[in-house]
Amino acid sequence: MLVLFGWIFGWYLSFWLFTDPQQWILWALAPYYLASIYGIYVQLKANLPAAVRIRRTLRAHPWQILADVPRGLAKHPDALDDGVWFALEDPGRPGERVPLVFVDHARTYWWIRRIGGPRTKAELKAQIEPLWFAGDPRTVAVVAATGRGGRGPKRLHFLYQRGAVDRRGIPHQGGRVRSHGTG
After folding, report:
1. How many domains does the chain have?
2. Same domain assignment for residues 74 and 48
C-alpha cells in the first residue's frame, strides 16, 4: 500500500511541477510522469487485489510455522497445475499431503530462487526455513518467509487451488475443489 501512495504522490508532484511555467522541468520530469501513471495502474491491478486476498485469508486462519516442508520446481504428480509447489499436510486427512502450486506467476521470482533445485545454494534455501503458513492447503493459503531475526513473516504470497476458488480468490461453498470448467 505504501508503494501505491508513493506513486500517487509522485504523480501529483510531477503534475504540480508541470503547471510551473519553467519549460525545462516539464521535459525533465516527463518520463517520470508517464512511468508514475503506469506504476499506479500496476499497483491497482495486481498488488492491491493480492493484498486484499492475503488480508482476508489471515483474518480467517492463524499463522503456523512449519519446518521441512517438501517443495519442488517440477510438476507435482498430484497437482492440477504445473509449477513451483509446497506439499502441505491435508487437514482433512492427517498423514497425507496436498500440493499447493504457485499458479499465478506474478511476484514469484524470489520464491523460485529459494525453493530451487539441486544446484540451489544452501543459504538461499535456508531463507524459507521455517515456512510461515496460514490457510487451508485445499483451498487458499498465505505463505511467508521468516523475517530478519526470526521475529515475524515477510514476503507474503497468496496461493490457491485453482478449482477451489472463484476469480476473486474466494473459496467456493464448502471449500471443495471443483474440476476445471464447472465454475
Report:
1. 2
2. no
